[in-house]
């Protein structure tokens, strides 16, 4: 197949992701605008940063008055997984080069990575089709958000603020149902975040996440992490 055909095929595979990303992008825009970010800043973050949970966390921290360093470090910790994902994509893909690898790393997120990893495709153009289509849908959601939020009733725009919690619940629930050790780790990290929040403020998320990761090294089975069992 030609590069164009493989790219278009990847875009088609990315359509299901778009159905989730557009409303999530609107939710992110609601939080960003409420935090005082301009429409240009809101959409630009989706273009230049592109990390759904990371963007929502950043906007929420801006709203709570966090420092720039706290926001940067929190996103660094939260998004460390993208280093691993990008490396896996690089190892799996064929017909790639440095510019394409850089582009692929920028548009790598959980959903596009999962869809590509579970498929038999190994061409970089198929992956870029999936990932770029998802990226554009996220940007579209943010763009729609900054336009329509002023037109919606306050009760509707405020409801978008729960999008961060809905995102994390959607990520955590499957793992918690499969593994009690993961459930315990989530509980420990949540309690740590609440307790440390009384003393460390916005830094509590960083510290509790790092402590949770260390605890997870000892209480979560390697077989589960490697996908060999529960």
Key phrases:
single chain; 230 residues; mainly alpha; globular; disordered C terminus
Describe this structure in words.
This protein is mainly α and 230 residues long. The protein has 14 helices and no strands.
> What is the number of E strands?
0
How many distinct helices?
14
Query: Averaging pLDDT over every residue, what do you get?
Result: 82
Largest sheet: none
Inertia-based shape: globular
Distance between the termini: 39 Å
Q: What integer value in Å does the Rg equal?
A: 19 Å
Low-confidence stretches: 225-230
Amount of helix: over 70%
Q: Helix and strand layout, with pairings?
A:
Layout: H1 3-13, H2 15-34, H3 39-48, H4 52-63, H5 68-78, H6 81-92, H7 98-106, H8 110-117, H9 124-148, H10 154-159, H11 163-178, H12 180-200, H13 204-219, H14 222-225
Helix pairs in contact: 1-9, 2-3, 2-4, 2-9, 3-9, 4-5, 5-13, 6-8, 7-9, 8-9, 11-12, 12-13
Summarize the structure.
This protein is mainly alpha-helical and 230 residues long. Helix content is 79%, strand content 0%.
């Amino acid at each position: 197949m030609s590069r164009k055909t493989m790219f278009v095929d990847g875009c088609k595979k990315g359509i299901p992701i778009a159905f989730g990303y557009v409303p999530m992008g609107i939710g992110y825009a609601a939080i960003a605008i409420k935090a005082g970010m301009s429409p240009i800043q809101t959409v630009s973050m989706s273009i230049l940063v592109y990390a759904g949970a990371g963007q929502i966390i950043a906007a929420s921290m801006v709203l709570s008055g966090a420092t720039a360093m706290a926001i940067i470090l929190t996103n660094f910790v939260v998004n460390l997984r993208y280093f691993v994902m990008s490396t896996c994509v690089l190892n799996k893909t064929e017909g790639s080069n440095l510019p394409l690898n850089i582009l692929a790393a920028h548009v790598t997120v959980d959903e596009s990575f999962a869809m590509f990893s579970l498929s038999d495709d190994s061409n970089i153009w198929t992956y870029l089709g999936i990932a770029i289509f998802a990226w554009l849908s996220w940007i579209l959601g943010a763009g729609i958000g900054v336009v329509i939020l002023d037109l919606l009733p306050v009760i509707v725009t405020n409801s978008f603020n729960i999008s961060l919690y809905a995102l994390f619940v959607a990520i955590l629930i499957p793992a918690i149902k499969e593994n009690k050790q993961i459930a315990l780790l989530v509980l420990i990290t949540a309690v740590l975040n609440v307790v440390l929040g009384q003393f460390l403020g916005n830094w509590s998320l960083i510290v509790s996440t790092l402590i949770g990761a260390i605890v997870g090294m000892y209480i979560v089975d390697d077989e589960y992490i490697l996908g060999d069992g529960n």
